[in-house]
Amino acid sequence: MKVFVRFVLMLTVISILSLLLGISLVEMGVPPVYYLYVVVIVLIVSLFSAGSILEPLEELRDAFQSVVSGEIRTVTPKSTDEFGELAKAFNWMVEELRKEKESLEESERRFRSVVEEMDGWLFELDSHYCITFASPNFRDKFGDVQGKPVRDVLEHFPVEKLESGKFEYEIIKDGKITPVEVIVKKDGGTYRCLARDISTRRKIERQLAFFREILEHSVDAIVILDVDSRITVWNRGAEMMFGYTAEEAVGKPLNFLMPKERWQQCTENFKRAVVEGHVKDIEAPRIRKDGEMIIVDQTLTSIHDSNGEVIGFVAIMRDITRRKKAEIELKNTCEELERRTREILEVQKELQQLASIVENSNDAIYSVNLEGKITSWNRTAERLFGWRRDEALGMPASKLLPEEIKGETEFIIRRIREGESGLRFETRRLRKDGVVIDVEVTVSPLLNEMGELSGISIITRDISEKRQAEREAERRMLKYEVERGRVYFADSFDTAVDVINDLIRCGYNGRVISRRYPEVLGIEEGNHLMLSAKKRDGTLEPDPDRIYREILNMPGWKNAVLLDIDYLLIKRNFEEVYELIQRLKDVFFVLNKGILVVCTESELLGEREMKLLKMECCAIKSKKIEMPAEIYEILRFVYAQNRVGERPSIKDVMTNFGITRNTAKKRVAYLAERGLIKMIKDGRMKVLEVTEEGREVMRVA
C-alpha cells in the first residue's frame, strides 16, 4: 500500500476517534480515559511511522554505508510503494557500481601487466624530486625507493632537464653503465618519468653509421632500387665507377647503364631475384657517362618488408674490366706456357741428347765459373788432361795452364765481360803428368736465368800433331825466323812489309795498318787499312782503343799484322802507343792470335823510347839460305803447293812471280840440276814436284 494512502487512512481513523472522544468529553467532561486515549493514539502513530517509514530508510542507510566502505550490498524491496521503488533504484546503482569496480579492477590488472612488461622503468617524482611511485621492474633493480630523493637512487640524475620533456642519461649500477632515454610528462607538481634502455638502439645506430660509411666509401657501386627498378640510392662508389652523380642517377631505371640488347636480360634477372631472393655473379657490360664500356660483376638481391613483401632491390657492382683483361691475358699466358712447356720438354730431350753428345764428344769440354773454378768435366777431358771428374770439379782452371800463360782465364773472362760472344784460338794446356800440349780452344759465355754472365764453356781439341806439322812447314817455308803468338819490331819498313808478304804467301791472313798507301807498300788494297781521322771505307781512326779492337776482332789465329806507328806517334803520346803494344802482346801471346810486326822509321822517338819498344818486342831474323833468294822463293812455292796436293806448272810459276817464261825455265832448271825439284809429265803438261833432297833443304832452312 502506498505511504500516502496509509497517511490518509491514519488521519481518517484519528479524526473519527477524535470526533467520538470529543462527543464523549462534551457529555462526560474530561476524564483520565482521555489521556489514555491520547497516549494510545501517539503510540499507534509512532509504531506505524517506525514500521512503515523508518525501517526501509534504516536498511537503505546501512546498505549505502556498506557500499561506501567497498562492500557491494543490495536491499530487498518489502513493498511496492515509494520505499520499494527507492530500494530498486539503490540496487540498480549498486549493480552499476559493481560493474564499474570490476572494470576498474580489470583495467588495473591490465595496467599493472603493461607496467610490469614495459621496456623501461616507470617512476613518479614530486615537486621535491622524491620518488612517489616506481614500477615493479624499477624496484627489482634499485630496491625499495619509495619516498627517496631520485639522486640518492640514480646518481647525478639531471633533474634540471625534467622540464625539457626528453633527455638521455647514463645509469651507473654495479660498475655497469646503462644508457637510457628519459621521457617526462609533467602533471601539476608531479613528474611521470619513463626511462628506456637504449643500449641496443645505440648499438644499432653505430651499426647503421658503420654501414652508412661502408655504403658511402665502398669502391663497389651499391645501388638501391624500388620495385619498379628505379634508382633510389646511388653511393659514391657508383659515382666513381660510372661518372654520374647521385642527382643525375636517382629516379632513373637501372637499364640506362646497359646496352639495349641487355635490357631483356636485366628484366629476367629482376624476376629471378624476386623468386630466388638474389642473383649473383652476373658478369655484364655497363656504359659509363663518357661512353666507355666496362665489365662489372653484379649481385642483385631483393629487399623484403616484415610481411615478406618485396619492397625493392639492392645491386652491388664491381668493376672487373681489368680482371677480365687479366683473365684473357692469363689464358693467353697459360696457352703460351703450355706451348713453352712443350718446347721445354723438347729442349730437355735435346739437352739430354746434347749432354750425351758432350759427355761422349771427342773434344774435351768443361766449364769454369767467374771465380775461375771448374764446374763441369766430360770424359774426354779426363782422357786428355789426366784428371778424373771428382778431381777436376772445383779445381782452379789455372792448373791446366802452363806457367807462361797463367793469366789466360782472367783474360778470357774479361774479354767475355766486354761483350765478346765467342773466342776461338790456339793455345797450350798442361796435362796432369806435366806434359804441355797444343790445343784449339773455343770459349762461349754461360748465362744464368737473369741473362747475367755466370761462367764460360770451353771446348778443347788436341792439335799437338797438327801444330807440330804446321810449325815444321812454316819453319821450312818462311824466309824469316818468326813464330806465331809473338810481337816483332822492325825499324825498316821494307823488312816489315817483306815479312808480312811472306806470311801472306804461307797462308796467313794479312792486315797492314799504316798511313802509307797500299801501292807504295806493295800489298793488296784489301789487306790495307789507312790511318785517318776522317771516317770512310778502308780507314781507321788513329785511336789506340779502335786499333786494339780492330786487331782483336780479326778472325782465326793465323793473322799477320803490320802496325805502322809513325802516324800514331804524331797523334798520340808515346805512353798510349806503348800501352797499346803491351795490350796487343797479351792478346797475341795468350790467344795465339798470329804474328804482329810493329814498325817505325820515325825520328820522333828518343833512344829511351826505342829501347823500350825493342825490349817489348822480338827482333826479326832472316834465315841463312845458300841459294839466291829468287830461286829459294820458287822452291818454297812448289813445296807449299805440293803440301796441299797440287803440282804447279811452269806457267803457274810465271803467273805467281810475274816473270817471263825463259826466266821461269832458268830458275826451275837451276833447282832441277841440284836435285831439289823434278819435272813430271802429267798428260800433255809438265808439272813440278819437290824431291826428298828439296824437302830436306826446306827443313834445314
UniProtKB/TrEMBL annotation:
Coiled coil location: 87-117, 323-357
GO biological process entries: regulation of DNA-templated transcription; signal transduction
Annotated ranges, domain HAMP: 51-102
Gene Ontology molecular functions: kinase activity
Transmembrane segments: 7-26, 32-54
Keywords assigned: Coiled coil, Kinase, Membrane, Transferase, Transmembrane, Transmembrane helix
InterPro entries: Biofilm_reg_signaling, DUF835, HAMP_dom, PAC, PAS, PAS-assoc_C, PAS-like_dom_sf, PAS_fold
Pfam family, one: PAS
Superkingdom in the source lineage: Archaea
Position of the signal peptide: none
Domain PAS residues, every copy: 207-262, 350-420
Domain PAC: 280-332, 423-475
GO CC entries: membrane
Stored NCBIfam families: sensory_box
Protein name per UniProt: Signal-transducing histidine kinase, putative
The species this protein was found in: Archaeoglobus fulgidus
Lineage start: Archaea, Methanobacteriati, Methanobacteriota, Archaeoglobi, Archaeoglobales
